[in-house]
Structure formats: C-alpha cells, structure tokens
Design brief:
single chain; 3-stranded antiparallel sheet; 5-stranded mixed sheet; alpha/beta
Length: 531
C-alpha cells in the first residue's frame, strides 16, 4: 500500500534541489561570464546593447553590460551584483571579477558532480582567498607619498592602465594626465560629485562664442558671485487666491506691488556688489534685462550639483532670500567668462580661491561614444582616488594572478586531504585572467601561459602578458600598474560569490499567482468587468 504523498507547496511551485540544481546554477553563471568574457583587456571587444525602448549603448565596462542585460536567473544575479559592487567600490576590474567568479565555479564543478560536500569547498576557498590577499599585501610595492612627483607618476600609470582597455585607449596618455589633474584638485575627502562631466556633441572644431540678445557682458575680472535659490520673475497669481477689486486703481495697485517686490529683490542683489548671479530657480526676462542694463551677468535654472560645485570652488553660500547678501556670502574668482562650446554655452570660473572642484567637457561625434568616454573616465577617476588612499600597487596584465596561482599551487602541495585538490583548483582558476587576455588578443594562450608558469617558477614575480609583442614581459617595468586594492577587492568578491552559489542546494520558485492574472490582461472594457 502506497503512503499518501504530502503536498506542502502550492500547485505549480517549481522546486529543484540537490546536485543537479547546483550544477545548473554553476552553468548559469558561466553563461553570464561568456557575455563579458571578450571585453577583458586592451584588445577586448565592445558590446552593443539595445534595451526595451530601443536605446543603444556601446560599452566595454563589465558592470554596465551586466546592468543592461536583464538577468532573471536567481543564481546568475549574484554575478551581476558583484560586478556592480566592484564598480561602486573600486571602479575598475568589473569584467575580471565576473570572470574569476565563474572560473572558480567551473573548476569546482567536477568535484560537486562527484558528490564532494559544498561546505568543504567553501572552507577551502575561504582559506585560499585569505592566503592570496595576504600574499598581495606582502608583494605589493608601496610608493612614497611624500615625493609628489613620484606619486603623480604612479597615479598617471594607474589611470593609463585603467583606460587601456577602453574606447579611448588611443588617447590614454592625454586623458590620464587630465584625470590625475582633476583628482589632485579635490580635497581630502575626494568626493566624486565634485568632478562634473559635461558632454557636448560635435567634434573638436574651433569654437566660437557670441554675446547673445541679452546684451549681457560675457567676461569679468574679480567679480563677486551671488548664488541664489530665489525665483526672479513675475509670479502668476497663486491658484485659488481670490481678490475682489472694485476700481481699476485697486487692480493697478496689486500689479504694481508685484513689480515692486521683484524690483526690490533686484535692487538688493545689485547693491550687494555681485556681478554674476546664478540661481537654481528661473530668472525671468525682466530680471535678465535689469541685470544686463547694470552690467551684470545672470543665469537661471542652474542644476543644483553645478551650483554646489561653484560654491565649493568660489566660496560663499547658497542664499534662499536676498535680504542678507553681505560680502561673506558672495563667492569670488579671478576671471569669469561665458564661452560657446558646440551648441551649448558654458560659464568658466578661473582662478577660484578655494578650488577643490573641476569639470570635464567632453567633445565627441556620437552620443554613445561620449557616454562610453564618460564611463571610462569614471573608472579612471575611481582608480586614481583609490591609488591616492592606498598607495600600494601591483603589476596588471595577468602578472599578479600568475604569481598568486603559483604561490597557492605550491602551498596546496604541502597540505593533506581534500583541501589540497580544492586550493589547487582555486590556483588554476586564477589563470583565467592571463588566458583570456591572450585569447582576446588572438595569441596562443597555452604557449604564453607555459612561458609564464616557467618564468614565475624561476622567480619572475611581475611577469605578465605583453599584448604588444605577443610574448611575456615584466609588466612592472612596463608600467602596467594597478592599485593593490583593486585586485584584493576582485578576489574577495569573486570568491564570496562562488561560495554563495555553491552553498545553495535548493531553489523554490513560487508560481505567479494565477487568480488575478487573466482579469488584469482583459481590463479596459468599461468598468473592468472580466469578459
């Protein structure tokens, strides 16, 4: 007699468990890695992604690509998340972190299929990661902060390494210098918001500027700058305000009062001695004309972050009323000038006393190109910030991965038990980075990896792939540098993600509730009756 089966979950619930479930999760993560695999390194290809609305994005940045892919598989989402966290934390290395995590899983897949318990795998991976991180810290080269010239060189090298795999790699020397200049201007907090990036379409044409119909002067020397959050235009009457007027004079008085309020504000601003008036709220035509007649410049509807950035650079503070415009709330700079760039006009403040901020203006043909440039600069800026805070660097181009791989492989031979196999698998997985660099450049990966293994065994710590000559080279000498922080973060994130996915042995998917689904689709007939 058969025992009655106990039905615990709702009908239609999809639950899968055990080893097949784990293996399918691992395969899903490999599919994700396939998507970004070819973007790694200086010879990486770009991806063109079109979203639901038809907006096309061209990108080489692992995190951007994974964000735009609408991933639904629950286990594969972890890889998207680590790429995002790497992007937010360090800025660069998003492709490597995804590849590493997928490769870790690929290496343990046979062990899982043979029935090795996931907890043993997780323990081995944690040990290996700890060893690898300590090893990075031990061999990373520290650069002396005291020596400004040395530090600047280091930062430029790091920025160039970050930019070498991007669209703008041809001009990386130019951009790296610019990024370092920008970050060096910030204060100790190194806030990202203080670097503005503006994009103007239209290539590197000669720019011209014109003083438009406002007849406002476009250039001042040592002006005072008023930063306001005040509306300077005739307000329309408030809705639902009711005024009963009996004679025309009464009405005239109301209108006059409005004008007087406006003129009163304008006079206060004029008397404060400010020459440049920037406001977050609109500045009307009357006010614009008034300022132009008195040889002042004004701009309304300035975005808040730009206003804050101006405040940080020129001093002063943003005022919400015009009654207290004393000298100490006004900003100052040496020269203020409005210039036309492409179709847009920009205001330049030069010689700011407290300059801890800066703005890039990117010129380029297509919108996608400029957006990709902005993303690349963002990566480089983040890398430079990291390098200022943590001043130790390692060699990129697969060098550090090969060294860690050799170290862990040697270590694994000294321990008994299953840990030996797993740490060996971890060591093998690290080789994916140099291997992929070779594949993307069209080199013979096996050949180059054999050379690398041999060289590292002889003690060539910083030997990595030399993309330009299809060989191996000392990447530290070749200035392919990255902050050690980037690698540490990538390893820990990838190993955590791998452990997380290995530790899941059952997935239960609740069915979409079926009761309200059909009616929702058939709405729109009168009173929402089901048809």
């Amino acid at each position: 007699m058969m025992p009655t089966p106990v039905i615990l979950l709702k009908e239609g619930t999809d639950s899968s468990q055990g080893i097949p479930q784990l293996v399918s999760n691992i395969s899903a993560c490999q599919v994700i890695a396939e998507a970004v695999r070819t973007t790694l390194g200086p010879r990486g290809m770009d991806k063109l992604i079109v979203d639901g609305r038809g907006k096309a994005t061209i990108s080489n940045d692992g995190a951007t690509i994974l964000k735009l892919l609408d991933v639904v598989h629950p286990a594969a989402k972890t890889l998207v998340d680590i790429a995002k966290s790497q992007d937010a934390e360090v800025g660069d290395g998003t492709t490597s972190v995804t590849l590493l995590a997928a490769e870790f899983l690929k290496q343990v897949k046979p062990y899982v299929e043979e029935g090795l318990h996931p907890q043993i795998i997780i323990r081995a991976f944690r040990t290996a990661t700890q060893l690898a991180v300590n090893k990075i810290k031990e061999i990373a080269v520290t650069v002396k902060k005291a020596d400004k010239v040395e530090q600047r060189k280091l930062l430029e090298k790091c920025a160039m390494t970050a930019l070498s795999s991007k669209l703008i790699s041809q001009q990386k020397a130019f951009f790296a210098k610019m990024v370092v200049d920008a970050v060096m201007m910030l204060d100790d907090l190194l806030q990202l918001k203080m670097i503005g990036i503006k994009k103007v379409q239209g290539g590197a044409l000669e720019t011209f500027s014109y003083a438009g119909f406002e007849m406002q002067p476009k250039k001042y020397h040592n002006p005072k700058i008023a930063l306001l959050n005040v509306e300077l235009e005739l307000k329309a009457e408030k809705d639902n305000a009711e005024i009963r007027v009996h004679t025309v004079e009464d009405y005239q008085a109301i209108v006059d009062a409005e004008w007087n309020i406006l003129y009163d504000k304008l006079e206060k601003i004029h008397h404060s001695g400010a020459k440049v008036v920037l406001s977050k709220l609109p500045i009307g035509d009357v006010a614009t004309q008034y300022f132009a007649d008195r040889d002042m410049f004004c701009a309304g509807r300035v975005p808040e972050e730009d206003l804050k950035r101006t405040m940080m650079a020129c001093g002063g503070s943003i005022q919400t009323s015009v009654n207290a415009l004393s000298a100490d709330v006004l900003g100052r700079c040496q020269v203020f000038e409005e210039t036309q760039i492409g179709g847009e006009r920009y205001n330049f403040f030069t010689g700011c006393p407290k300059a801890k901020t800066c703005t890039f203006i990117l010129r380029g043909g297509a919108e996608q190109f400029m957006e990709e440039t902005e993303r690349s600069l963002h990566d480089a800026i983040m890398i430079v910030r990291r390098a200022i805070k943590n001043d130790s660097v390692v060699a990129g181009g697969g060098a550090i991965e090969m060294e860690l791989s050799k170290y862990l492989r040697d270590y694994s031979r000294t321990i008994p038990g299953k840990q030996q196999l797993l740490i060996g698998a971890y060591a093998k997985a690290l080789e994916i980075i140099p291997r992929q660099l070779c594949d993307n450049a069209g080199f013979d990966a096996t050949n180059i990896l054999n050379k690398l293994r041999a060289r590292h065994a002889q003690g060539g710590t910083w030997y990595g792939v030399d993309i330009n000559n299809e060989d191996i080279a000392d990447n530290f000498e070749a200035f392919v540098w990255e902050p050690a922080m980037v690698r540490i973060n990538a390893l820990t994130a990838a190993s955590e993600a791998a452990c997380l996915i290995v530790s899941v042995d059952e997935t239960i998917k609740n069915p979409r509730s079926t009761v309200d689904a059909p009616t929702a689709a058939g709405r729109g007939r009168g009173r929402g009756r089901p048809h």
